[in-house]
Amino acid sequence: QNKVCERELTMINDVYNLFLKVVETGSISKAANELFISQPALSQQLKKLEKEFNAKLFTRSNKGIELTKEGKIVYKYFTMFEECLDEMREEIEDAKNNSMKIKISAVSTICNYSLPCVVYHLKKHYPNVSVELNSRESSSVIEEELLRERCDIGFVTENINNNETLAGKKIFEEKIVLVASNILGSFPDSIKVKELSKYDLIRMSGENEVIKVVTKFINNFENYKFTYNLESVDAIKSCIINGYGMAFLPYSTIKKELYHKEVKIVDVEQVSITQNISMIKRNSHTGGVKRVISYMEKYIKKIIC
User: For the chain, what is the total number of helices (H) and then of strands (E)?
Assistant: First the structure.
């Protein structure tokens, strides 16, 4: 049975390598040359693949080979399969070397500003544990990764209902503050909610967890006019420092700029905004992973704060 499984894995590995090489080169002849096989043999393998999926995967044009709609679906899943194989090989090596990898996915602000310190302390306590830290755009993406076992621990800003598969625990509360330049521009120290619309506002583009939280405290905030939609917190802070506008940001992301007096916090009268940061995990964790997670649950608040 093991030999059968090995043959099947080898066959799958060969097929997806052939397919991906054709996509990469955009040419059957170029792919055949790089793979050191004949062009007819490669074409035959691709026909078998199309027969297997009962779909046309490529179209030929003057530009070369292009993926069809169905071909793009196959490409997406073959790419995922390639990643899974790489991860499998890494886990096998970890097992051989008596080491362990922990994969953490977190919303961007937590990933980039709070967790690096946590990972540092974790590595000191568990020197044989390697940590892969990934930034994700939303809590829902992280929850899906946990369900699909694509990560071991998630840090989210939305409440996750505990169930048979996942369990969540609130770690700490993070303040969301209105930030303005302390160097350029004439920004007030205090402002009323209704006055916000008079100023240039900056936000992060895409699905923004911070905007979701602020909207819970300031009605219709997501419909305010935003002068800038930027891709990162660092880009937002750069605009703020240069006096281009104000933005709501988690307090942890501006500590350095506050210390250097590059920015200031503008008080929004009668509004205090906080977001809950929760750590979520799978209930199925056992052994070393479970011990690492327990350590993080016990000490993470002390490390971050």
Answer: 11, 12
